[in-house]
Amino acid sequence: MTRIAIIGGSGIYSLLDEKEHLKVATPYGAPSSRIERGLIGKTEVLFLPRHGNPHQIPPHGINYRANIWALRELGAERIVAVNAVGSLREDYRPGDIVIPDQFIDFTKRRALSFYDGPDVYHISMADPFCPHMNRVLYDKSKESGYTTHLGGTYVCIEGPRFSTRSESKMFRQFSDIIGMTLVPEVNLADELAMCYSVLATVTDYDVWAEKPVDTEEVVRILRENEDKVHTILSNTVGILSGFRDCNCSLRLDGAKI
What we know:
Layout: E1 4-8, E2 17-22, E3 35-40, E4 43-49, H1 64-73, E5 78-87, E6 97-99, E7 102-106, H2 131-143, E8 148-150, E9 153-157, H3 165-171, E10 177-179, H4 185-191, E11 195-205, H5 215-240
Parallel strand pairs: 1-4, 1-5, 5-11, 6-8, 7-9, 9-10
Antiparallel strand pairs: 2-3, 3-4, 5-10, 6-11
């Protein structure tokens, strides 16, 4: 059974060696693409490009429920999600890695739950990310020499547009990074009692900054970050496919009404 899954974000469309492509039917329709099953080193991994391959699905159009359901159906117990994000802090610089431990939801019209009735669950989201996976990702990223931040709040906006300057300045008051794809991915993984962590790669300062990065610079940093992601995942999937040193599998206990 393949226990670890990776969801690729912008710039991450292929990771695996000796892969096969799996078509999975779900109660929620089709996932973003066929799911790849293959190897990173000697570890079997599932891989799903969130935006499709090629990149063709915008953040607000992703079938998040189908994606998470399909990965769980194939046996995944843990998900590492790769997200390209903007920075809301001067010290979270383009090229840095951030492993958030909190989020704020500013999405508006996404299907947020598997439990639309008749079964109703209210799960705790006080600590939405897996602390064990967060620590492993952080340690291995630091060992690779990358500037890495453990902890931080990810504000997820609806998209596909970027923030206004006023919005960006507001988000800076309570968040550290900004993106469009965390929610409802994290909600859904938690509802299935899966471990979920984000490997966030900073591509630019959000529009609050007086020194916005141009498109050429963003593309350059995306490519550099892709190499970092490959290295970090190569050094972590073997560990993450092992035992679960966390309480994520207990999220549904006592949550049913």
